[in-house]
Amino acid sequence: MKDSIITYKSPKDPISEAFRNMRTNITFADIDDEMRVLTITSTGKGEGKSTIIANYAVALAQSKKKVLLIDCDLRRPRIHRLFEQPNKRGLTNILLRECEPTEAIQTTDVENLFMISSGPIPPNPSEILASKRLIELINQFKLAFDYILIDAPPVGVVTDAAVLSHVTDGYIVVAAISVTNKEGIRMALETLRNVNGNIVGVVANNAPVSKRSGYYYYYSAYEEDQHQSKKEKKQRKIKEKRVK
Ligand SMILES: Nc1ncnc2c1ncn2[C@@H]1O[C@H](COP(=O)(O)OP(=O)(O)O)[C@@H](O)[C@H]1O
Ligand SMILES: [Mg+2]
C-alpha cells in the first residue's frame, strides 16, 4: 500500500485524525437520509480525489464498517495503484459481463475494506457509467457492504461524475486550495445540484498541483487522454515541458 494512505500507514498522525473527523461529520449528516453510497469528485484532476477517498475508505473500515471502494474514474484510474493491486479485472469487465462481480472484488491490507479497480479503460466511459447495469450492481453491493465509496473523474470535465447521481446518496467535493477558483467550484456544485446531487461536504485539500494546470487546462487534458495515441501524448508531454 502506498505511503499516501496515511490512515493505514500512520493512524496516529493528525491527518488520520482529520479523516476520522470527516467520518464523524458525514455520519452526522446522515441522520435523516441513508447515505451509504458516497461519490468523490472535484473540478479538475490532481486535486486529491483518489487520495482522499482511499484514506476515507480506510478510516471507515477501521470503524468496523464493511466498505467497498470502486474506481469509477475510467479515464485516469488510480485506486489499484494506491492499494498496489492489479487492474486485470475490474468494473468495466463486470459491466461488460466478462466476469462475475465477485471475481472482480479484491481484498486489501485493511480488514473490512474491499476494492474494485477500473478494469480496462473503455472508449465510452460516460455511457458505461450511465448504464442500468451499474445501478443494479450498486444495489446488489448494498446488500453485502455497509458503505460503497466511488472515486469519480472531475465533474467539470466530463459528465461522468454527474451521471453517477443515479447511484449516489451523497457527493464529497474536493477543492485544491492552491488552484480551484471560485468559478470552478461554483460550477461543479451547480452541475451536481442540476442532477439533484446531494452534496455532503466540500473538502479543502492542499494538493501540490501546479498553478498552470488550471481548470480549462484540465479540460483539454481529459479530452486528449481519451483520443490521443501514445505517440501524440508523448509529444504533448515534451511540448509541455518546454512551456514550463
Ligand atoms: N494534501 C496533499 N499533500 C500532498 N500530496 C497530495 C495531497 N493530496 C494529493 N496529493 C498528491 O497529489 C497527486 C494527485 O492526487 P490524486 O489523489 O491522484 O488526485 P485526483 O484523484 O484528484 O486526480 C498524488 O500524487 C497525491 O499523492
Ligand atoms: Mg483520481
TrEMBL record:
<keyword id="KW-0547">Nucleotide-binding</keyword>
<keyword id="KW-0829">Tyrosine-protein kinase</keyword>
<comment type="similarity">
    <text>Belongs to the CpsD/CapB family.</text>
</comment>
<dbReference type="GO" id="GO:0016301">
    <property type="term" value="F:kinase activity"/>
</dbReference>
<keyword id="KW-0067">ATP-binding</keyword>
<dbReference type="InterPro" id="IPR025669">
    <property type="entry name" value="AAA_dom"/>
</dbReference>
<protein>
    <recommendedName>
        <fullName>non-specific protein-tyrosine kinase</fullName>
        <ecNumber>2.7.10.2</ecNumber>
    </recommendedName>
</protein>
<dbReference type="InterPro" id="IPR050445">
    <property type="entry name" value="Bact_polysacc_biosynth/exp"/>
</dbReference>
<feature type="domain" description="AAA">
    <location>
        <begin position="35"/>
        <end position="196"/>
    </location>
</feature>
<keyword id="KW-0808">Transferase</keyword>
<dbReference type="InterPro" id="IPR027417">
    <property type="entry name" value="P-loop_NTPase"/>
</dbReference>
<dbReference type="InterPro" id="IPR005702">
    <property type="entry name" value="Wzc-like_C"/>
</dbReference>
<feature type="compositionally biased region" description="Basic residues">
    <location>
        <begin position="230"/>
        <end position="244"/>
    </location>
</feature>
<feature type="region of interest" description="Disordered">
    <location>
        <begin position="224"/>
        <end position="244"/>
    </location>
</feature>
<keyword id="KW-0418">Kinase</keyword>
<dbReference type="Pfam" id="PF13614">
    <property type="entry name" value="AAA_31"/>
</dbReference>
